[in-house]
Structures are given as C-alpha cells and as structure tokens.
Amino acid sequence: MKRGDEEIDSGFVERLAGFLGFDEERVQHLFEKIYLARNWGKHDYLFRFDKEISRIERGTVLYEKGDSFEVIMGFPKIRRAMVLDPTLKKHFSGLEKITVEEKMNGYNVRVAKVKDDILAITRSGYICPYTTEKAKEKLDLKFFDDFPELVLYGEMLGPDNPYVPKEIYGIDSVEFYIFDIREKNTGNPLPISKKHEILEEYGFLQVECFGEFPLHTAAEQITKIIRELGKKEHEGVVIKDPDMILAPLKYTSSQSNCSDLRHAFRFYNEAGRDYMLPRIVREGFQTVEWDENEAEFKKRYMQLGESILRPLRESIQSVKNGQRLYEEVRICVKDPKTATEFENYLKRLGVDAIFEEPQPIGNEYLINIKKINKSTNDKTQAIWEGELW
Question: N or C: less crowded end of the chain, CB within 10 Å?
C-alpha cells in the first residue's frame, strides 16, 4: 500500500495490525490519512500517532523491536477541576488520601531508551534534537540501562527553553523536572512512592510534592497552596491517587490563567477560542468558589482585563508602526551542529524562525531565536488596510 509517495510493506501492515489489535484495513486507513506517520531523517524508523486513536494518545510512538513492536505511550489527558471540594470528593471517591504535586509551566517531554539511543520525544511524538542533547547532558543515563522498560515523563523548564521560556523558577539555563515514570507498551504509571524512590536514587530533579492530604480536607489545603503558588506566578497543582490507579486532576492559579492569556492575545490570531475561553471561565468559577469580596473581585477582573487588552494593544500598535511580531526565545548548546539540526527541525514543523549568530559562553553557545507569528502579523496588517473581520 502507499502513504503519499511512500510504499508501506503489506507484511509490515499485517504485523502492526496484529500487534495493535486492529484489522489491516484500519491500519491502512491510519497511514493513508497520516494519522500514523513516520518520523523523518535518522529517526524515520519511529512512527507516531498524529491523532488519538482508540485510547492511544496523540504523540504515542512505536518502532519495530525484534519480530514485534515497542510503544512509548503519549501524555494522558489530565482533566481539570473547575471547583475543588465537590470535584475531589466525587472523582477520588473511596480514597482516604490524595497526593498533591506542583504543575510546572514548561514543555512536556518523554525521555526513553530507543534502539540503544536516548531520545527526547515531544508531546506530538517528534524527536527534538535540542531537547535530546539536553536530556543526555542533564540525566544520569545509567537509569536507562537499569530500567530500559521505563520512560521518564517530565517538564523542560528554564529561560533556554525554546518552547515555553520561563524565568520564574530560578533556573539559569534549562532543567528537566520529572512528574511521572511510566512503563513502555502499557503506559502504566509507577505508584508515587516508587517513583520518588527511583528518582531520588538517580538524583533526578522532580516536581515538588506538597504531600498527602485527607480527601475530606484536601480542598482547603490545595486552596492555600494555590494562593502561595500564585504569588510566585507559578502554574498550579496536579492532584493524584497515591497508587496512580485513578486518573489525576489539575487545578491552576489565577496568575497562570492571566499569563497564558497575555501570550494568547499578543498573538491573537494564532491562539483559538478553545484556548482563550476556558481560561476566562476558570476565573469566574474561582472567584465564586473563593467567595471573594468586592475588593478582591475588582483586583481579579482588573488583572484579567489587563492580561487581555494590554498585549492586544501592543501587538496592534507594533504592526501599525510597521514592525513584525515575533516571540524571542533562546537555546544554549555544546555542539553547534545541534543548533543547525534544531533549525531544520523547526522548518520541518512549519515554524518561521530566525536564528542569530551563536555567541560563545564558556564551553557552550547561546543562540537567540526570533519565532515569527505570521498569522497575527498578516491578519493585523490586513485589518489596517481595510479588510473586514
């Protein structure tokens, strides 16, 4: 069969169908629609799911291993608690205690051993060359020899993060903070106590664990934690079953919602309604849940309004003045070839980016990058030239 210009071996389709428990016609359909796609370059032996299929998460990757396959499952969707007390008691019914960990604001990465190589896999299932270099540099690779069947699920954080750069965590360059360890093929997570034991053994950084709380008082404790995280402009928490049997929930601070909106409205034509509206609705539920008085409510809506209107005004003004809108990020690499590979990688993803000349800093190279937001630029310019909305 063919997928675009590529010939897919029928024997491969048959074996993959048997492994996934699908019929062959369905696997052929996945290839034809490019819902199951081959990675490119030196990682073209990896196949990634570009769409969620039958509980196989988008971003899941698979590859041949012997006469079968090995799978690295994607990131499970974590549903959101809009109000804490009733949601926690309903979702975690039957548990005596729940665990609360910090939800850090970075870029999701899975790191695993794949065919004797250590790879960093993005949420979408691509192999990021920059993140892979950093993973090999930052992590104790002995872990992957000792536990080749396990995958680290974590957050890439810091100012040298080209996806979600943040200064708020006091990180000089970039670090990995692990929040889950999961098994290959099944995607089953290790219990939290076992996860902590392994991460501590190998000296891995891990997201902060605020502890276990009785279910009947957890909402009150989490509210206190969220208020403190908000003061530092941190994102929020993930609430987990200590045994990781029930699915986790997430809950975020008002400051995080507003930070997201500031970025979204700066590039308003890139961010869709499904991104913006939920963050505004969260503010409405939280102000009622927290029983805010008029002064507290006014502070909230002034902060919310400013996070929407100020970046929007700045973007429109910039385009009116003949300036191009772009997002400034940076990377820091030991090998300049990694920067070249990362530039080519972004081009393959359709990202319009300008890489400046590398600046030597110690034994590394700092490269500033301008990521052009073409859609918002073009839309804003067209409106100034008289186009209707």
Answer: C
